[in-house]
Design goal:
CATH architecture: Alpha-Beta Barrel
Strand order of the largest sheet: 1-2-3-4-5-6-7-8
Structural class: alpha/beta
Helix content: 40-55%
CATH topology: TIM Barrel
Strand content: 15-25%
Number of strands: 8
Radius of gyration: 17 Å
Distance between the termini: 9 Å
Largest sheet: 8 strands, parallel, barrel
CATH class: Alpha Beta
Number of domains: 1
Amino acid sequence: MTATALSVNVNKIAVLRNSRGGGEPDVVRAARTCLDAGAHGITVHPRPDARHIREADVHALARVCADYRVEYNLEGNPFAPPRPGYPGFIALCEAVRPAQATLVPDSDGQLTSDHGFDFDRDIDALAPLVAQLKAIGCRVSLFADAGHPGTARARDCGADRIELYTGPFAEAHAAGDASAVLDACAQSARIARSVDMGINAGHDLSQANLADFLRGVPGVQEVSIGHALISEALYAGLDRTIRAYLDCIKNAAP
């Protein structure tokens, strides 16, 4: 079985940069540091309000991923309308051709992505957007709640993968008993695989819970981790933290 890929979300580097203005810390340098340490790819989630990753960053990081020959994962809400400084998610994907486009249903003012799509309701609206993205060569992943009864329907619109929203798992793990939510994640993964979709995961995964999650949900192809990883790197350093996450993935392997 292929090991789970670690894609590092560098949004938080941009948050820190934007809080002061200027170019420091440099998201490109941070991404290169992560890749030099062994990360398998880079994730960004540009939002319409440009609160962290900006349009210019999307292009700069695409060049970094091309240089390193690693996957670039662009996340966003495909329904958010364009505006000055934000050409729209589909337009960004057309411009930089990421390996993967991860679609999320968050609103403009949402602090962070905290729920998946309602596949019974959203599938018809998603289908033409998924087709557009696949036509330019993107693998398409849809953000999904563990245990959603309509998970298999994600395949109906042409999606290649789901990304399990792992916030509830992380919360339960911190409270001391994640067995129920972990079972729900594993069940969603089995449903997805039964209709030939791959499995990604992300949100609030950390060194404290990553290995337990991967043991409980075998076959996860990619984890996208940002907030916890960057927070931990403030204490231990970015290179050391990336290597620690790779050890978590290795130690979770059967």
